[in-house]
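Students often ask why inverse folding is considered easier than folding. One informal answer: many sequences map to the same fold, so there is more than one right answer. In these notes we will look at a single instance of the problem. The structure comes first.
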């Protein structure tokens, strides 16, 4: 996007020159000049002028107000007793102007000229040099209220869903369905020249009605806040007609944002606040919490937070994720652990003490991140391999019956107590942008982390840090897991030195026949028998992993058995995945483990392979 300063330089330099020249010649004694030869001039003439920059303020309708800051070369003179002294000086001026920006720049006018004031100009600009509004995060709710006051004031008097179609009509815009992209990556489009909003029904079919309403308001925000930016670009390129809004914005450091990025950020952030205005949404949330806690006979927000989010989404006709994020905006931190969608499913709602998580942290991480951290972080790997933690419900939790149980489906899951005391038993992970995104995006948390599904999931990764919080959890794990670690050590000490005898001892200890272990490992009973008697037959790493899973051995016992086989793991994706399963899924069935392997894009083990 080209900027307004360059446009003024190109098209209005002469008008600026004339105005400055007349002011300088007419007010020589009022110029704040420094000259060793001329103290108070009685003559002044403009020699040259250089436009430094332009600060732009918004105005009603199509109007703009702007201050052109110029550096002027001036020849000054003073005659005393017939002796004329002359000097050349530099002086900066503020030249205040107005104009209309509608299908061209019209009615340009210079209103006032004064000596440049750095302090005055510091907070002068309301629009960028591309005529994009300058809006900070703490102004977003105010911007939403201003919009509603103008186009849908009824939403500010009582909690009520915003009629987006009424808003479009009141703004004098037209709404139309149209296929906007072949790959459904564009939600909507605003055609400024035609005063028309286009939206792609195929995109909404894949998402939700809430996204339809959000996109329509999103485009309305573009019209309200960015029409002048569009008009500037059309001044420079008459073929400019639209703004297109993609499903997933490219993430980059804020200091590298283009004007188009700023416009998209503003529309993305203001639209949901229009649909859920601050005060009225807060009233609605409080009413819902009161109603649901009364219904459930509980005074804990954590018990009803999921229901509140869902009903809030239904009431305002928006998505559950939008309702969740809005509640977090309003200070309901409990909402952050509810309706978290990872690896294609919602995980159990979990809560924690206020302040336990920083803005860029989480308890819940994707399996892919868990694998990467287990493979690359020595601290985490040592703790997991020691049997102190289990990865369940997308969290690394202390491996103790107080926090982890086997669910009806045979999988490890967190207890109700663990879900309501996540800070007590779960490890914390820092969420970071990937290298191509950067770390200085101030809206990273709100825009990326809470949407860690679909395309947004590729924007962030979880990283384990042995922080004070995690050290405190680990100290608790040491105390609770001491008994199980001692029990494991006792088993280790009782095991024979050979693979075959160790396998037989485990089977006897667990009361497993060849046939039963075959069912649990998806290996033929004769294969297991041959492995017990002759390790050189069928003893590949896949079969060994299947045996360990069938025996449901913890990581320490599994590594012992595999070591005695003479086999070892190598640093490949497949072998890292096997180690991850043995460390995290040993309590689960072979079918569950194979399901995880398929998710990783790896072939299953046992007879399914």
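Output (designed amino acids):
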């Amino acid at each position: 996007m080209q900027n307004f300063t360059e446009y003024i330089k190109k098209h209005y330099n002469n008008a600026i020159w004339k105005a400055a020249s007349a002011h300088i010649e007419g007010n020589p004694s009022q110029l704040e000049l420094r000259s060793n030869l001329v103290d108070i001039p009685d003559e002044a003439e403009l020699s040259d002028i250089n436009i430094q920059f332009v600060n732009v303020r918004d105005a009603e309708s199509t109007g703009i107000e702007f201050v052109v800051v110029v550096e002027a070369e001036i020849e000054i003179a003073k005659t005393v007793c017939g002796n004329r002294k002359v000097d050349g000086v530099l002086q900066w001026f503020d030249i205040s102007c107005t104009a209309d920006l509608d299908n061209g720049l019209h009615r340009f006018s210079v209103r006032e000229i004064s000596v440049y004031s750095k302090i005055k100009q510091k907070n002068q600009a309301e629009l960028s040099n591309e005529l994009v509004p300058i809006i900070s995060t703490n102004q977003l709710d105010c911007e939403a209220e201003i919009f509603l006051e103008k186009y849908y004031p009824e939403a500010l008097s009582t909690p009520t869903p915003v009629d987006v179609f009424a808003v479009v009509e009141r703004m004098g815009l037209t709404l139309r369905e149209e296929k906007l992209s072949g790959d459904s990556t564009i939600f909507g489009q605003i055609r400024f020249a035609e005063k028309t909003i286009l939206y792609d029904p195929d995109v909404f079919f894949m998402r939700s009605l809430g996204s339809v309403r959000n996109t329509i308001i999103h485009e309305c925000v573009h019209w309200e806040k960015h029409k002048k930016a569009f008009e500037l670009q059309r001044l420079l390129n008459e073929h400019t007609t639209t703004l297109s809004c993609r499903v997933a914005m490219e993430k980059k450091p804020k200091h590298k944002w283009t004007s188009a990025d700023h416009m998209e950020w503003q529309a993305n952030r203001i639209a949901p606040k229009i649909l859920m205005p601050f005060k009225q949404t807060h009233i609605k949330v409080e009413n819902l919490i009161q109603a649901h806690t009364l219904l459930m006979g509980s005074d804990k927000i954590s018990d009803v937070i999921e229901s509140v989010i869902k009903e809030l989404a239904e009431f305002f006709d928006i998505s559950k994720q939008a309702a969740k994020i809005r509640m977090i905006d309003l200070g309901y931190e409990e909402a952050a652990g509810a309706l978290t969608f990872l690896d294609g499913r919602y995980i159990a709602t979990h809560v924690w003490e206020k302040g336990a998580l920083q803005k860029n942290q989480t308890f819940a991480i994707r399996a892919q991140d868990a694998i990467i951290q287990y493979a690359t972080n020595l601290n985490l790997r040592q703790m997991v391999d020691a049997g102190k933690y289990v990865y369940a419900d997308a969290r690394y939790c202390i491996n103790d019956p107080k926090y982890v149980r086997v669910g009806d489906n045979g999988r490890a899951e967190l207890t109700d107590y663990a879900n309501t005391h996540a800070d007590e038993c779960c490890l914390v992970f820092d969420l970071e942008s990937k290298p191509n995104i950067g770390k200085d995006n101030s809206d990273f948390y709100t825009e990326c982390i809470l949407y860690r599904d679909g395309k947004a999931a590729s924007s962030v990764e979880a990283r384990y840090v042995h922080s004070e919080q995690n050290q405190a959890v680990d100290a608790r794990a040491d105390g609770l897991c001491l008994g199980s670690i001692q029990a494991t050590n006792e088993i280790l000490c009782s095991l024979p030195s050979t693979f075959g005898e160790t396998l037989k001892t485990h089977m006897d200890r667990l009361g497993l026949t060849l046939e039963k272990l075959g069912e649990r490992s998806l290996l033929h009973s004769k294969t297991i028998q041959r492995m017990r008697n002759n390790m050189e037959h069928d003893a590949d790493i896949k079969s060994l992993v299947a045996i360990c899973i069938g025996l449901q051995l913890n990581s320490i016992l599994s590594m012992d058995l595999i070591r005695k086989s003479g086999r070892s793991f190598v640093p490949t994706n497949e072998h890292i995945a096997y180690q991850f399963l043995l460390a995290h899924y040993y309590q689960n069935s072979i079918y569950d483990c194979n399901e995880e392997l398929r998710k990783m894009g790896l072939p299953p083990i046992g007879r399914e392979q």
